[in-house]
Amino acid sequence: MNFQSKLPNVGTTIFTTMSQLALQHQAINLGQGFPDFSPDPKLIGLVHEAMLQGHNQYPAMPGVPALREQISLKVNKLYDHSYNPETEVTITSGATEALMCSILALVRSGDEVIVIEPVYDLYIPAIELAGGTPVVVPMLAPDAQHGNYRVDWQRVRDAINAKTRMLVLNFPHNPTGIILTENDLDILEAIVADSGVFILSDEVYEHIVFGNALHCSMAKRSALIERSIIVSSFGKTYHATGWKLGYCLATATVMHEIRKVHQFTVFTVYSPMQYAMAQFLQDPAPYTELSRFYESKRDYLANGLKNSRFKPLLSQGTFFLLADYSGISTEPEAVFVRQLTVEHGVTAIPMSAFYQNPDAAESNHQLIRLCFAKENATLDAALDRLKEL
C-alpha cells in the first residue's frame, strides 16, 4: 500500500535502539531516563486502597477534582500563583499527552514554533502533526570558558516573526541539565511583551534542581502566566514513570481549547492513581526533599567519573549528567556510544541524538548523556566498567 507518511523523518528512537542494544549485550543501561528503584510503598498502598474503594471507572474528563485541588495548592505554595482547579488544571496521561494536546490545540497550519536545540524528541513531530513549522535555535555548546550549555536569547529573539505562534521551553533541561534564572524570566517577559507568542513550558523536572537553586517556573511571573502552558509530571517526581500521570496548567481560555483535544485523545486517565496521588500530594516532603536526594546521586556519579578518563559536566537539574569523552576517543557520538555498549557494557545516549542533524559536525561535541536515577550498586557497576577505558 502506497501512502505518504505524516512523519517521514521519524523512525526508531535512539532510546529504543540503545536499550535494545543494551539488552543484547547485557550492558548496564544508563541511557533511558527512568529509576531502577520503586515508588514510595505508601503511595503504592494508596493506589491499592483506591482500587479496593471502587475507584476503577472513568473519573471526570479533566481529572479527579481532589487531585486538581492539590496541584493548585502546591503551585500556589511554590510559585505564589493560584490556578483555578475547575478551569485551569487538567490531569493528563503523562507529560507527553499534555505536550501533544497543547501543541495540537494552539498551533495552526502555517504557524512557526521555536524549539531550542538540543531538543527533546517529542516537540518537532508534534509541531509537524499540528501543521506547524518547527524553527530550531541552537544553544551555545560548552567550551573552554563555559562548562555548560547556554541559551542564546538573542538568536531566539531573531527567530521570531509574524508567523511565530509558540516558543517551546524545557527547564530544567533534558538533556543538558541546565536551569533558568530570574534573569532568564526577565528576558522571557520582554519577548512575550514584544511578540505575544505562547510559551509551552515543559517543567517535568521542576523538583530536581541543585545547589540550593529554586526552579524558575513560568508560574512565578504574572506576565508569563497569561501566555504560558505549563506541563509537569508525577512520574519524574515520585519514581513512577510507568504510571504516565502528568498535568498541565493554563488560563481558562487556553485550557478550554486544550481540553477539547484531551477529551478526544484519551478522554481521561487512570482513576485509582489519581485518587492515590491526591492524598499523597498533601505531604510536601517527597517533592521538597527530591533535589537533595538526586544531588547526592549526581555527585556520586560525577565523583566516580573523575577517576576515569571521562570529564563530567555538573548538571544544574534533572537526573542526567553529561560526560566528555574527548580524552578517550575522536569517534562521533553515535559511534562511540555503540562501542561503549558493545565493547564495555555500559549504555549511554549521544548528545547528537537531540539535534535535527545528528551526523553534522556542529551536532557532535564528544558528549554523552548518563542517567543517575539508579541504585548506587548500579552506578558502581557502571563506573567499574567506565574506569577500564
Automatic annotation (TrEMBL):
CDD domains: AAT_like. Pfam families: Aminotran_1_2 (PF00155). GO terms for molecular function: kynurenine-oxoglutarate transaminase activity; pyridoxal phosphate binding. Residues 27-386 form the Aminotransferase class I/classII large domain. Transmembrane segments: none annotated. One of its GO terms (cellular component) is cytoplasm. The keyword Heme does not apply. Keywords: Aminotransferase, Pyridoxal phosphate, Transferase. Its cofactor is pyridoxal 5'-phosphate. The keyword Transferase applies. It comes from the Bacteria. PANTHER family: FI04487P (PTHR43807:SF20). Belongs to the class-I pyridoxal-phosphate-dependent aminotransferase family. This is Methionine aminotransferase. It comes from Eoetvoesiella caeni.
